[in-house]
Design brief:
Order of helices and strands: HHHHHHHHH
Distance between the termini: 39 Å
CATH architecture of the largest domain: Orthogonal Bundle
CATH topology of the largest domain: Rna Polymerase Sigma Factor, Chain: A
Strand content: under 5%
Number of domains: 2
CATH superfamily of the largest domain: RNA polymerase sigma factor, region 2, helix turn helix motif
Largest sheet: none
Radius of gyration: 21 Å
């Protein structure tokens, strides 16, 4: 394996060109080059000892492979930026899906019925405003802007409440 410093000698675009030409060596260098970055990104979302860590690292590798195949120079963005956005979106989607599946399995009821959504909010919060915001925006997929408009509340206030709910949910998940 090459040391990380050796990767500085390789330009992403040169490696992508060589990969498209069929170079296995370029492919291996590219994966080694981004492995550290994938781990760094995953650590931002889950702890190393979390059971999902290795799965998310593997998803990061698959995201890298997908980005290598689909990257287009005409996007007016660097490969690094393209990959960063892709991996972050994929991790968030997987974590959100995983979280929703846990709730559904625990409660054994359809998550999207309006009657059941109220139950989920009450499982975690006592404050009626938090319950409503949780039910509408997190479980019900209403945008924060729509919620603020419907409730005639400034968006900044809704956003602050939303961030507090997210922080509380993170604490709850860390305890489990």
């Amino acid at each position: 394996m090459n040391s990380y410093n050796d990767y500085k000698n390789y330009n992403d675009y040169e490696l992508l060109y060589l990969i498209n030409e069929g170079s296995e060596m370029a492919f291996n260098i590219f994966f080694e080059k981004y492995e550290i970055y994938i781990i760094k990104i995953v650590k931002e979302y889950v702890k190393v000892y979390d059971s999902r860590f290795e799965d998310l690292v593997q998803e990061g590798r698959m995201a890298l492979f997908t980005c290598m195949k689909n990257y287009n120079d005409n996007l007016n963005t660097s490969f690094f930026t393209y990959f960063t956005v892709t991996i972050r979106r994929r991790i968030l989607k997987l974590l959100n899906t995983d979280y929703c599946n846990v709730i559904v399995l625990e409660e054994s009821m359809p998550i999207y019925s309006s009657e059941n959504r109220r139950i989920y909010g009450r499982m975690y919060f006592d404050d009626p405003e938090k319950i409503e915001l949780f039910d509408e925006c997190i479980i019900g997929n209403t945008s924060l802007a729509e919620y603020a408009k419907d409730k005639k509340i400034r968006y900044s206030i809704v956003y602050k409440r939303y961030r507090k709910i997210i922080e509380e949910l993170k604490r709850i998940l860390e305890l489990n």
